[in-house]
Amino acid sequence: MVFRSEEMCLVQLFLQSGSEYDCISELGELGLVEFRDLNPSVSSFQRRFASEIKRCDEMERILGYLLREIQKAKIAIPGEDDGPLAPPPRQVLEIMEQLQRLEMELCEVAKNKEKLQRNLRELTEYTHMLKITRTFIHSRSRHEALGPQYEEFPTVETGSVTGCTGMQRLGAKLGFISGLIQRVKVEAFERMLWRVCKGYTILSYTEVDESLADLDTGEIGKSVVFLISFWGDQIRQKVQKICDCYHCHLYPHPENDDERADVLDSLRIRIQDLNNVLHRTEDYLRQVLQKAAESAYSWVVQVKKMKAIYHILNLCSFDVTNKCLIAEVWCPVSDLTNLRGALEEGSRKGDATVPSFVNRIPSSDTPPTLLRTNKFTSGFQSIVEAYGVGDYREVSPAPYTIITFPFLFAVMFGDLGHGTVMSLFALWMVLMEKKQKKKRSGNEIWATFFSGRYIILMMGLFSIYTGLIYNDCFSKSLNIFGSGWSIKPMFANQHWTNKTVQSNSLLTLDPNVSGVFSGPYPFGIDPIWNMAVNRLSFLNSYKMKMSVIIGVIHMSFGVVLSVFNHLHFQQKFSVYLVFLPELLFLLCLFGYLVFMIVYKWLVFSARESSQAPSILIHFINMFVMQGNDITPLYPGQTGLQIFLLVVAMVSVPMLLLGKPLYLHWLYRGGKALRRRRGYERVRRVSEDDGSITSTCDDDEEEGVDGLTIREAPPKQFDFADVLLHQAIHTIEFCLGCISNTASYLRLWALSLAHAQLSEVLWAMVMRLGLRITTKVGVVFLVPVFGLFATLTVSILLVMEGLSAFLHALRLHWVEFQNKFYHGTGVKFLPFDFSHLPSVFEQDGLL
Fold it and tell me: Which of 266, 352, 526, 792 would staple 347 via disulfide (CB 3.0–4.6 Å)?
């Protein structure tokens, strides 16, 4: 973790024809540079390597199909710790042909498998239809069928002599249509048959016991076998149209039992043959997919790298001779040697006759911000960058956030027990981080916790420390060193008697009695306060004052850090005209408040505590300049308070007008002086205030400060704009000192809330289980402890922990970072293969 962002430079890369692909590949493996687009006016379809990117898109499409088939077959794709390098351009066509050949083979096998499965479903349905319709034909009574039936055709009368119906005499032939229909369509199908055919049909149906797969979709569902009897071809045509409308699966109906038996035998044989062929097809398909799965990860990585390389090549421009590509990149100055080495290696791999080389060029553009992190500091850097990416070469708050963030969290969350549980959970994630990274969990909540494992570990460790300070462990105190309070002297000196104890429910220990109070507890708060009735008022006073002290120190530290920005950007006048007024205003008012708190703690003992004045009254009287009738806190208090108040009030107009007037003089009144001295000055604008300054040589005797060039110069100096900007900053800082100091009282409020919730949870849950002293109490204690543990984790650790986390985040963003951190920069995004997103990982295919 560095104090400020790294120094960057703008570099031109001259990539020789034939080796540009290998050079970009080497840069992608190292992740050293950020490329700039030199063809912003050219659309992506008109760029030189658009066809190569289109080929990579086609390979990604084939890989997506391949990965989906592998996922359907539930075949694991072996990953590799070190991904393969980008393939040479001559191997791209080979990979493309291999993928296309594999796709064609898989499509053909999949189509054959689908046809076999459809045929198998058809034969299975036909078999069920034949078995069930046999019961319709041979049933003794049509009423025995499960479905409703129509007993006779209306208006069809049987002849008394011949025994033939009128239909038979007219030459009509009895016909049958049988098949299967979905269960949900049966009622509508039955009504339609009745209305269209006017009752000249007999419908028998029953539900198949087994769930059958649909022929088209393959979904499992309930089906119904039906048999329709009718007279004549016209009725047949109507019935067939109705069956087609309801997507019925029709099968030929045998005319007699012998034919039915023959068809069933042939179906049985065909089903067995289809099952054998289908098993062989599935085995072959699985073998193909297993073989493809071995190389799938390598193909995905190679195609991703190829596509990224061609995207970068499209950002480059060609020289007039078309013999080399020119690229512009931002590169850390410390990595220029590695950059040259990467280009040399790429030229060697590409067999270039002329090596690629680097040319550093000057630039007035603001470089991107680069702050190197590791797995420990990356979480804290993310907290800072959630507020905003730092300006180039600006002081970074991240190194201090590593300590201050978990400390402020622990002040609100201080509990030895809860901190221990949180630390153990974070320690488990740290120890298992390698295994967890390989699993690539898609759970977003778990991924958030895992990425912040070191933050949670630090928060847990600091919570253990503050828990020891508060002497609080699951709302109970620990008597490690022995209390400094004793009740024996109260009886020895006849202050208490047995009658006093019996007649009073509450008794007060008097520290003025010799031997009652032997001295403060060695570390933290004395455990006797856990038994005291006035414990809450004592802790409130202690934590409230502690919050103010921590807040003023934290804000003062933020103001001090702004000095390093002023000095680095050669704005020495800002040290005198901005930093000093800000620091004087803050310390003369709220620093003095901290002084009074500490002074009262140190000077007034237990014997003099009744005579100790109120700090709040003295602080109010400081502003109204009253209080002569009140006992002073120390000699000469009134004079010192008036002096501090005057200094604070004077610092406000100095902060408001000092910088604008100096810049106005520097631009207007200093021209003649600069001409006489012969200095050539260049006007520039400061990024943080938008004002116009000059860059000059350092000359301590003449007292003129030079400024860093951070933006292009405007045409003219606007005094009103600078004054307005400084007025906003002054109002924000002065009012912010008051509101921000009050904002740190959340440390006290959250700490109090956490302690009270912990105490309520112990009293309402755990104490009930511990009160039962019989044998049943041991059994009853198990579910009580389980409930206590569940509520502790869900409420006190998760909900309260999240609340304390958010409040600590606000204190850093608003109260600390705005004193020196602008956060308006641009993050350095190097071209790095390991940082490229994968479409297949986002879709869950890898």
Answer: 352
Residue 278 near residue 109, CB atoms below 8 Å: no
* Tens digits of residue pLDDT in 480-536: 888 888 888 888 776 777 778 778 878 888 787 888 888 888 898 989 888 888 888
Q: Residue 632: what are its φ and ψ, rounded to 5°?
A: -70, 155
Distance CA 442, CA 462 (A): 31
> What are the counts of helices (DSSP H) followed by strands (DSSP E) for the chain?
29, 13
The token pair at 420 is 């221990």
Contacts of residues 692-697 at CB distance under 8 Å and 24 or more positions apart, as own/partner, are 692/663, 692/667, 692/717, 692/718, 692/722, 693/571, 693/663, 693/666, 693/667, 694/666, 694/667, 694/670, 695/570
Spatial distance between the Cα atoms of 468 and 353, rounded to a whole number of angstroms: 70
Q: What are the structure tokens assigned to 125, written together?
A: 């349905």
**pTM of the complete model beyond 0.90:** no
359 SS3 class:
strand
* Tokens linked to 676: 């006489």
CB within 8 A of 263, min separation 6: which ones? 126, 130, 254
Please give the Cα distance from 237 to 258 (Å, whole number): 27
- pLDDT, tens only, 42-62: 888 888 889 999 999 999 999
Among 68-82, 243-257, 573-587, the least confident range = 68-82
Q: On the CB side of 586, how many CA atoms lie within 13 Å of its CA?
A: 28
pLDDT by residue (tens digit) across 79-126? 766 678 888 888 888 899 999 999 999 999 989 988 988 898 889 888
Specify the pLDDT at position 678: 41
Distance CA 745, CA 617 (A): 18
Are 550 and 408 in contact by the 8 Å Cβ rule? The answer is yes
Show the beta-strand stretches assigned E in 109-221. Answer: 174-182, 201-207, 212-213, 220-221
**Tokens found for residue 552:** 């003023």
The CB-based long-range contact list for 645-649 (8 Å cut-off, 24+ gap) reads 645/588, 645/589, 647/584, 647/588, 648/584, 648/585, 648/588, 648/589
Residue 360's contacts (CB-CB under 8 Å, 6 or more residues apart) are 9, 10, 11, 12, 336
Overall average pLDDT of the 561-588 stretch: 93
Compute the distance between CA of residue 88 and CA of residue 315 in angstroms, rounded to an integer.
20
